[in-house]
């Protein structure tokens, strides 16, 4: 009877080598910063970066084909107009107008009043607090408890929106006006997701 121990050892060694190679490639992909096609920035770049990294790792004509697809699809998206999320960020920038914080009810009231915006009749009904929270969650923005003029309600802070504005509305963010003289406004953030949950209180400018 032939001794199969040698074959088993060789097979195990080959499997370990293969797994090690996969792990190494995965690590390289995670650290990769692929070159983006000209004009691909911000949100489209975030979406396409991992796909282009995989194409670069595959080699051959995949890097070129992937970049051609990237440019084509991003252009098609741009021609269809801005996404609902980007439109919301643009309108929220108008709604806050330099304010440090607003109650959700005030945010919705102002969004609904924008004549050329879809918020007063979104899929047949006005945008509500749940829909607003859902749309903003893709930008890591969540409602928090804010206290303005003695009232404590759920709302949003402009500093929580600042990163999304800077990333997806760079031209607008570059023209950000200086805030006016602040007055007392305390904000309690305990339990908010994706933000500092220390429960500290601070001074902000009321709307």
UniProtKB/TrEMBL annotation:
Q: Which residues form the DUF3631 domain?
A: 23-168
Q: Which Pfam families match?
A: DUF3631
Q: Which domain of life is it from?
A: Bacteria
Return the annotated region ranges for Disordered: 1-23, 175-207
Q: Where is the composition biased (Polar residues)?
A: 10-21
The record's section on InterPro entries has: DUF3631 (IPR022081)
Q: What is the name listed in the Swiss-Prot or TrEMBL entry for this protein?
A: DUF3631 domain-containing protein
Q: Which organism is it from?
A: Actinomadura napierensis
């Amino acid at each position: 009877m032939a001794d199969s121990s040698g074959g088993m050892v060789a097979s195990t060694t080959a499997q370990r080598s293969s797994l090690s190679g996969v792990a190494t490639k995965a690590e390289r992909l995670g650290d990769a910063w692929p070159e983006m096609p000209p004009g691909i920035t911000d949100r489209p770049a975030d979406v396409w970066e991992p796909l282009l990294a995989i194409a670069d790792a595959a080699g051959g004509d995949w890097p070129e084909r992937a970049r051609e697809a990237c440019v084509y699809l991003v252009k098609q998206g741009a021609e269809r107009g801005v996404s609902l999320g980007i439109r919301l960020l643009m309108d929220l920038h108008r709604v806050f107008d330099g304010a440090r914080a607003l109650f959700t009810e005030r945010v919705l009231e102002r969004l609904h009043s924008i004549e050329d915006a879809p918020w007063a009749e979104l899929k047949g009904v006005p945008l509500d607090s749940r829909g607003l929270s859902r749309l903003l969650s893709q930008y890591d923005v969540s409602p928090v408890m804010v206290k303005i003029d003695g009232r404590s309600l759920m709302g949003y802070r402009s500093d929580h929106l600042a990163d999304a504005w800077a990333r997806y509305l760079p031209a607008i963010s570059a023209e950000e006006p200086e805030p006016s003289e602040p007055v007392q406004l305390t904000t309690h953030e305990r339990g908010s997701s994706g933000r500092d949950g220390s429960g500290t209180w601070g001074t902000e400018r009321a709307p």
